[in-house]
Amino acid sequence: MAVVERTKVHAGTAEFQDVSEFFESRNVVHGKKLQVVSIERVHNGALEQRFKDKTQEYKQTFGQVRIVRAWHGTKKLNVAPILRNNFDVTKHGQSVGHRFGAGVSFSSMSGYASNYCDKTHSACMLLANVLVSNVVEVPENTGSRVPREPPFLPGRYPLRYDTTAKNKDTMDVFVKFDKDSFLPTHVVNFRRCAAPILYSYEEEDEEDDDDKSVTDTDSDYQVDDNFDDYNAFYGFGAADDEDD
pTM for the complete prediction? Predict the structure, then answer.
């Protein structure tokens, strides 16, 4: 059985700051802001070796590969099995969890990934290193027929794309189909807090400058109209209870 080491990352260290900043860069969902409580570094020698071998396989097969950091939301009870055995491509979500393919879903946004975590005030999610060589954008699945494999690479049959995505530039949501093409590196424990209201300053007309001084009152500020569209734009719809 694989040995899993989970080590607390102390606040104030470069590692803690790096993971926290990545987590907090896009972490507002359903009017709630996600706040880091603690971070654990994960070490599993067996999984790390398999990930290293898969990296070499990607280089030989596709000629190039990059490692992308991404979030995976899941229930707390699933964390220990994942850290021990890795993500299982056969256990994709049974509903919204397979919107872009029947594999393991990841996101560059912690806010999006949190849709698949426990719905309690405190929860956790996983940060992973993910191998990406060739990404293809695919339409969101709204029916019962889910792609089990990515499309073929043009001119390189029988090779297929290794990654499907909603948007290959932002990688808001992307799916992996290959075993061991991902490696969990950290567990981030977080809590949901009320998100701050976004404001935009409303400047006074020049002709009014002599008649009215600028003060920090409600009349000088207005709620940013784009705030209400934030979740809709990034696909923060209601998620079911399945893992993504």
Answer: 0.77
